[in-house]
Amino acid sequence: MGTGALSDDALPAVLAIDGGNSKTDVALVAADGTLLASVRGPGVPGVLSLGETLGVLGDAARAAMAAAGRAPAEPGGRIAAHVSACVANADLPEEERQLDEAMRKAGWSDTVHVANDTFAVLRAGLDGPGPHWGVAVTCGAGINCVGVAPDGRIIRYLALGEFTGDWGGGHGLSREILWWAARAEDGRGPQTALREGVCSRLGAASMWDVAVGLHTGKIGWDQALRLTSVLFEAAAAGDEVALDLVRRQASEVCAMAVSAIRRLGLAGQPVPVSLGGGVLTARDPLLTAEITRRFADEAPNATVRIVDIPPVGGAALLGLDHLGAPPAAYARLRAAYLTAAPVGLPPVDIEVPDDARELDRDEQAYQQRRTPPAANRPARRRLGQ
């Protein structure tokens, strides 16, 4: 998307980056908040593969320059005055610093700020110029949370997978859906409409065929890891297994946020809570209602908001904060995103590589980063616990 061409001597104010597990969104923004260009590329592996991450981000940034009508930057050339990058898998402050240093060396801008992608969700849910504070939960491919107090104190989670206490998100829910559907078929678990839903979605006659297809590569993990709509459909029809998974996801979202609120000592204040990520911005009525109910019970002073602009918009707002933009710039940028991307868009599909085996390798690499050896995993929690 481009809303205007740049002259040769013009330089965008902000290069905003939302680097996620399954996709990367990049935007170029002018000092007055005009959205100059927005492009999407593949996901980033994070600082564990720093060179690859910089390659993905650089390609997307240059594509945004082309979309804005500006010639691609030469290696080491400036792209914007400031880079505001919010990146998944930059889970530790030292990882943020590593990526920050690497992007400074790349020479794309005069100044750089790198943060975990959850900070983009927090900023996306807060209006106007700063300072900004509150709690954000992102529930996309995985789940994470950050809390910022009015005095600047930060509470964050490792969010490295099951072994750091995390549960849910699109990947986690899809694996649970497969687990319960398989057990329904062979009698180890209760009957559930998830069984028929999974088979229908994946074009298989049985869960046996689904499992064999995943094992042999005939069914790609790209399909199997985006089954949340199957869950929501079954829950809406009253399926108890699906309903319990939806309730559990709501419980996890609230548990992270409420814990952050309490750890920051803000339980008695009207704390703004921003909710983002594809699972939450899909605005499933049952999940949204359950989250609302739980916040009313556990954090009644919280003001909960599902973000209405994408996380890259939050990264861009952080960039405008850094530059001290006027209030009109924030309103202009939000208006551009609200016009281009209506509220309630479904979760973004994971891109499918030409070679299905490449996707399987990517999935295996993701799981190796996020999941401990089987012997060290906690026992699976039963339904209703």
Describe this structure in words.
The chain folds into 2 domains: 14-125 and 309-340, ATPase, nucleotide binding domain (Nucleotidyltransferase, domain 5); 162-306 and 353-376, Nucleotidyltransferase, domain 5 (2-Layer Sandwich). The protein has 14 helices and 10 strands. It has helices at residues 50-67, 93-106, 118-124, 169-186, 193-202, 207-216, 221-224, 228-236, 240-263, 278-281, 285-298, 311-323, 327-340, 356-370; strands spanning 14-19, 23-29, 35-42, 82-87, 111-116, 134-139, 143-148, 154-156, 272-276, 303-306. The protein has a 5-stranded mixed β-sheet, with helices on both faces. The protein has a 5-stranded mixed β-sheet with strand order 8-7-6-9-10, sandwiched between helices. Helix 2 links the parallel strand 4 (82-87) and strand 5.
